[in-house]
Amino acid sequence: MLRNPPPEADQESEVLAVSWEVFLRWFQDAWEPGQHVNLIGPTDSGKTTVAVQLCQLRQWALAFDIKGNDSTLNRAGWPRVTKWPLPGKVYDEMLKGKSFRAILGDSARGSAAMARRRALMRRALDDIWQQGSWTLLIDDVQLLTDTRNSSNLSLMVEEFLVAARDAKVSIVSNQQAPRRVPRAASDQASWIVIYLTRDDDVVARLAEMAGRPRPEIRGAIRGLRRPGILVVSKDPEAPLVVTRPERL
Predict the structure, then answer these.
(1) Shortest CA distance to 128 belongs to which of 182, 173, 84?
(2) pTM for the full predicted model
(3) FRET pair for 168, CA 20 to 30 Å: which of 57, 59, 62, 80?
(4) pLDDT in tens, 98-111
(5) Of the candidates 18, 125, 147, which has an alpha carbon nearest to the alpha carbon of residue 62?
(6) Rounded distance between C-alpha atoms, residue 122 and residue 166, angstroms
(7) Confidence class of residue 179 from pLDDT cuts 50, 70 and 90?
(8) Which pLDDT tens digit goes with each residue over 91-139?
(9) What pLDDT score does 12 carry?
């Protein structure tokens, strides 16, 4: 395992540079059920690709496609679920130990279709709260929790982020910047995935969310090279991890 601390980072911290394959093997053991992951980066940086590959580490995963027909989610090859609850035979197979990963929501576009998907996602969240043991991929979390929409799911998603650990439900969410979304998406995350940024305000907020010294986060981010990502644990003793994700 290559140890590669960038010169700007806090020298007391440890920065590990590893391949994506090595990272996934390590993260599968390190990522405990009920722990949340929050990905923060600009548009087209590859957040959804990374989120999908993380969810493939889990036995039961559901990707919320609020926009409809998300091209990156489609490349995952997961089936689409447009009705909830799931058919009884699906639950029977899951209880036997079979993996189930799917995209929640149809591929139609327009305001009516989005309202229909929000209603579907509300029903699914209600049910999953009782079932437990799911991993939820909430892509573009700001769309699902937009308070300007009368059917927004902000309070429901926040409740999951804060209280779902007892049910061993993990949420993998992504956003373009640490603002205009529930603070719980980042504050309740055990793991934060950060993409290259030069915005000092964003770096300051990322350091606050991670509970790490600002110079440490700034130095590690400056050491990134596209398409590299920085994986930060809320555990202050854990190393910062730099890796280069693979495309789906």
Answers:
(1) 84
(2) 0.89
(3) 80
(4) 999 999 999 998 88
(5) 125
(6) 20
(7) low
(8) 999 999 999 999 999 999 888 998 899 899 999 999 998 999 999 999 8
(9) 44
- For residue 240, the 8-state DSSP code is E
Assess contact for 126 and 103: CB atoms under 8 A. no
Residue in the structure block whose two tokens are 């590859």? 46
Please tell me the distance from the alpha carbon of residue 54 to that of residue 46, in angstroms, as a whole number: 13
Q: Which residue has the tokens 């089936």?
A: 79
Q: How many Å apart are CA 134 and CA 62, to the nearest integer?
A: 7
**Residue 241: what are its φ and ψ, rounded to 5°?**
-115, 125
Residue 232 DSSP label: E
What's residue 1's pLDDT?
Answer: 38
